[in-house]
Amino acid sequence: AAAVFYFTQREQEPATVYEGMSEAGLPVIYSLYNGRKINRLYGYTSEMKEEYMRGNVTPLGADGQMSIQVDCYDNRLTSVSYEVRDAQTGRLIEDTAVERWRETQAEDGSQIMVTLPIQKLIEEGTEYLLRIRLTTEKHSAVYYYTRIVYNKGLHVEEMLDFVTYFSARTFQAEEKQEGKSELGLYLEPDSTGDNSSFAHVNIHSSHRMLTWMNLEPERVGEPHVDIRQISETVGTLRLSYQIRAVGDTGL
Q1: Which residue would you say has higher pLDDT here, 10 or 84?
Q2: For residues 15 and 9, what is the distance between their CA atoms, to the nearest angstrom?
């Protein structure tokens, strides 16, 4: 799990300053794995080299297809298409236009649910490069990139369940009491762990570091889950979220 956060300590209470965040200019895509949102993708208005866009890997469903959710914000979607390429050679395997999608309304704009009916031209257990192309009334082309893999032996649900459970436990008050800790079963604290800051916390850090020392933070919203690597036995997943906290870190 990974988080990005900042701490600022001041001797006097600072004046409160609020600055509005700019609205998203392009649609944002999420993959849906059995209904769970994973692998947030941001768009590019120019084509990128697929071989360099290797951030996330998206497992396909049991039927070999891929469901996505498009958060359109103030964009109106006019077309959806995708390309599948061989990850090693770049050879084009499939180029398909999607004819149907389902649109719903959300507080911050419309949401589109689309199924990419990826053809049975891919081999099980092999990674491929996927490029999704959207057109909107404002943009003639917006491109999104991810890797895809079809493998019935992946334990995606179990991995997603574990990382979300592990992350949530680090925020629970009883976890700060080592005698009641469930996370202690997974820790291997030793001298290689850096317990001087929250910048690098891993299984070699102390139990107190894993549970935020004296900070007692509150997580804001649900974490975004990105799958960076996955195989039948090992997965690398990243959770991104914001926290809210007032007080001393204890460091």
Answers
A1: 84
A2: 13
